[in-house]
Amino acid sequence: MALQRPRAPEPRGLFTSLRKLGSTLFATLHSRIELLALELDRERTRIVRLVLLGLAAVFFLALGAITATIFLIVLFWDSQRLVVIGFLTVLYLGIGAALVAFAKREAALSKRPFSASLEELRRDRERFTAK
């Protein structure tokens, strides 16, 4: 059986306590910065993907709307072309207005970016200021 050396008692004092406090603060700050960086990367990826999907959707929807408009105008060229043009104009404006209203509602309901990081920082501040 090997003899175990008795451990030297940990030095106690103001500098040791301050060093431990600094180490804890640094570790906490480091984890919060990592969380913020992770959220920033996720948010950036999500926004880029949404913008690209939105641009592709707008392009193909516009192309389809233009093609359908031309088709209907040519179809009713001899009889009701002005009625068809007026109807399609009202339809497109109505759809556009509805989409703007939907986008405004979605923007108002969306979660704040970096809310998890902000919540963790708020909790940390409460812990450090608690008496």
What can you see in these coordinates?
By secondary structure, this protein is mostly helical. Helix 1 packs antiparallel against helix 2 and helix 1 packs antiparallel against helix 3 (115-129). Helix content is 81%, strand content 0%. It has helices at 14-75, 81-109, 115-129. It has one domain. The protein is built from three helices and no strands.
Kindly summarize this structure in a few lines.
With 131 residues, the chain is mainly alpha-helical. 81% of the residues lie in helices and 0% in strands.
Ranges where pLDDT stays below 50 over 5 or more residues in a row are none
Cα distance, first to last residue?
49 Å
How many domains would you count in the coordinates? 1
Radius of gyration, taken over Cα atoms and rounded to an integer in Å: 31 Å
The succession of helices and strands, N to C, reads HHH
Shape: rod-shaped
Portion of residues in helices?
over 70%
The helix tally amounts to 3
The number of E-state strands comes to: 0
Structural class: mainly alpha
The average pLDDT value, as a whole number, equals 82
| Biggest pleated sheet | none
Q: Strand portion, in percent? A: under 5%
